[in-house]
User: Fold these one by one.
Assistant:
Number 1:
Amino acid sequence: MHLVEDQNEPAAMKFRWKMLALGGEPASGGAGFSNPDNLLLDPNGHVWLVTDMASDKLNQPVPKRINSKGQPVSQSNLRGLFGNNGLWFLPTSGDHAGNAYLFAMGPIECELTGPFLSRDQQTLFLAVQHPGEMHGIRKGKKSEKRQFAIKTREGQEFIQTREVPIGSNFPSKQDNDPPKPVVVAIRRTNQQDITAV
């Protein structure tokens, strides 16, 4: 939501607002993300946001959208549909203003936080917190198949099967290594401004 204070005065008691983007499923008019947390406004005024869904909800199966009582499954229990937490880019101007674009996907059972741009706008820093928070070390490349009742934009339902790792070996990805929090630096290979659209 974008708030615009009367006469652009931060102490104003009145304001106008407009919605930039809504989270949630695209079938329900959402932009495809859930539980936005930290925000970064780049020098062009575009929004970068990281999501923070609780680790116990990440990748939890949603095999049906109707519960045993014939009622729709609560929105809280649909969070598994959104997979891992991620970093999203939302342009605030131009032809694609208000669209949400997945820029980075976090490893299993982690939270991405603290997006920060270098002064020259060529490097984006991002912290990966508590990977493997629920299941700890991924042992022997353990994973399991889970089902998700997905809806298309037209409202048609289908079942998607995903193979979900149990635990994490991030960042080494070596079998049986413990997961560790890190700060990553993301750069463009052509040395240009990472925020250029």
Number 2:
Amino acid sequence: MAEEQLTAPSSDEASGKRGIHGAWSSRWTFVMAATGSAVGLGNIWKFPYIAGENGGGAFVLVYLICILLVGMPVMVAEVMLGRRGRQSPINAMRYLTQEAGLHGAWNAIGWLGVTAGLMILSYYAVIAGWALYYIGQMASGTFQGASADQAGVVFGQLLSSPKELIFWQSIFMLLTMAVVVGGVTRGLGVAVRILMPLLFVLLVILLGFSIQRGDFARGFSFLFSFNFEALTWAGVLEAMGHAFFTLSLGMGAIMAYGAYMPDHARIGRTVLAVGFLDTLVALLAGLAIFPIVFANPTIEPGAGPGLMFVSLPVAFGNMAGGLLFGSIFFVLVTLAAWSSAISLIEPAVAFLIESKGFNRITANLLLGGLAWSVGLGSVLSFNVWADVTLAGFNFFEFMDFLTSSVMLPLTGLFIALFVGWLMKPEAVRSELMDESSGVFTAWRWILRYISPAAVLVVFVMGVYKTFS
């Protein structure tokens, strides 16, 4: 199909005031939205675990360096692309590619990001459904005095029941669609202004419970002791990869949110705020979770869903007041997943509205239904299709590998190359006029040389580790 010619955004849009979808009410709303997109299941469990297993504070230090040298430079570039295009990632890249006089193949940046976001949403909703289910199970007393075996039975029964999984997956998808239907100001903006402060409040409440009831000293030591001997090159690569993925880069969300960003907001400072809050949530989650885990001598910290859905329920169920705070924990997990999920569907919704004449309701019904349908494959991979594999993966594992290890790093790499090497320097500078020449020069040098190399290493090593 021939590539249609796209005109520049309207005068209002070009001036950065607002596109056809509206704009965030303030810079702080954008910070909350981008933080909500970045904060997800990985922050609540994965980051604290990999930090503790890779030298604690030593890993955190390396991770922060990677955030500064890999994550944030690419995030600035992605936000800048969104704000300059003032459209969905697909149409923004079409316009920006034409503006730069480049081949239409670079439009793939938008298509890759939007497609990856929908694919991630398909299985993300399944896992988030587990958290919804566990809110009720924890509050009803199912885990009161439970052993690890008993908790394992509850989790196993959930995974073995397609009907139960589909029910909770459907509830979570409906919650996600309900927010996005409201649009940028009445839906997304209102949601993030409520969800993100609530998430921080719940984290602080859980942290207080951990200090009172858990083994806080041991949990703190596990997360922050500087054990450089435990930090291997594999750990450094893991820090680099997590620094990239934790900011929701390469999945269209940040570019779409950037399109709604006020023109007067400084992109560099805004991205720094998002990176700080994202890391803060991860550290607070670790300080809240691990003292609870260590308070139960029969539980050892480990990775994966088994710890969140088996070990933690046992720990909460055997502590005074644990059922209440365990329920709060799974509400926290659900909120983190919810704030991320709305950012995964929004880029595709924006594209259908712009290019195909959909309204928000019909676009959400179509895309939500599509993601829900694809998610059935992930549901069945835990039971009926458990023995069905593709390239050695079940359906859920294949979707996770394809998105996180292939599509996201490739999109991030292309963004760095496009902005760092191919966009006209004056166009890039015009979007970052508030930054000093020294900061701009340093950022552009890192984006051109450091970030692409680092993302390429993450991509190659991720694929190599999977198939070696």
